[in-house]
Amino acid sequence: MRKLVYYIASTLDGFIAAPDGSYDDLPLHDDVRDHLVAHWPQTFPTFLHEHFGIDRPQGRFDAVVMGRHTYDPALKVGVTSPYAHLEQYVFSRSLAPADHPDVEIVAGDPVAFVQELKRQPGGDIWLCGGGRLAGQLLGEVDELVVKLHPVLLGSGIPIVDREFDPRRFRLVETRPFDSGLVVLRYLAR
């Protein structure tokens, strides 16, 4: 069965973006970029592949799921297919599927959709964000990979936005960088 992997950048206080959705305080330093290009190339938007020297992004993912607000930054710069190298699913009740033919717009229940996606053959599924979608799908997350930035925002978009319902994960890998960022990999218990 395919795994759902929540691969996300976060601050020390658990935010994936500022209150306005910006993520300028979560920079991609050179030392981290080189590691991510080598180990997680599929998580870079397709339009950046040439810039970062990614020839054929191979890896574990063949699909990406994201919320509407995670999809919006690409739309704002005219990119309707940010991860064209993957099957792309955007959860939204307001986007018209006909206006976004390069991605599949999903208006239904994210949990049921991802459960069905996990049963289909293929590679793992990347949960790209955002916090509300991650909160809804937390029970389906098999692996959590956090690029933990050494910054505190005080408020913003949380890594998961949901009612109190603790979920336990087991730490299986850490990778610190000179820039202060640490990549943490956890498996669901």
Describe what you observe in this structure.
The chain is an alpha/beta fold. It has helices spanning 30-39, 68-76, 110-119, 131-137; strands at 4-11, 15-17, 61-67, 87-91, 104-106, 124-129, 143-149, 157-158, 169-176, 182-188. The chain has an eight-stranded mixed beta sheet with strand order 5-4-3-6-1-7-10-9. Strands 2-8 form a two-stranded antiparallel ribbon. Helices cover 19% and strands 30% of the residues. It has one domain (10-30, 58-171): 3-Layer(aba) Sandwich (Dihydrofolate Reductase, subunit A). The chain has four helices and ten strands, in the order E-E-H-E-H-E-E-H-E-H-E-E-E-E. It comes from Micromonospora coxensis. One of its GO terms (molecular function) is 5-amino-6-(5-phosphoribosylamino)uracil reductase activity. This is Dihydrofolate reductase.
How many E strands?
10
Poorly predicted ranges:
none
Strand content: 25-35%
CATH architecture type: 3-Layer(aba) Sandwich
CATH C-level class? Alpha Beta
What is the number of helical segments per DSSP (H or I, 4+ residues)? 4
Q: How many separate domains?
A: 1
Spatial separation of the terminal alpha carbons = 16 Å
The major sheet is characterized as: 8 strands, mixed
CATH superfamily (homologous) name: Dihydrofolate Reductase, subunit A
CATH topology (level 3) name: Dihydrofolate Reductase, subunit A
Give a topology summary:
Elements: E1 4-11, E2 15-17, H1 30-39, E3 61-67, H2 68-76, E4 87-91, E5 104-106, H3 110-119, E6 124-129, H4 131-137, E7 143-149, E8 157-158, E9 169-176, E10 182-188
Parallel strand pairs: 1-6, 1-7, 3-4, 3-6, 4-5
Antiparallel strand pairs: 2-8, 7-10, 9-10
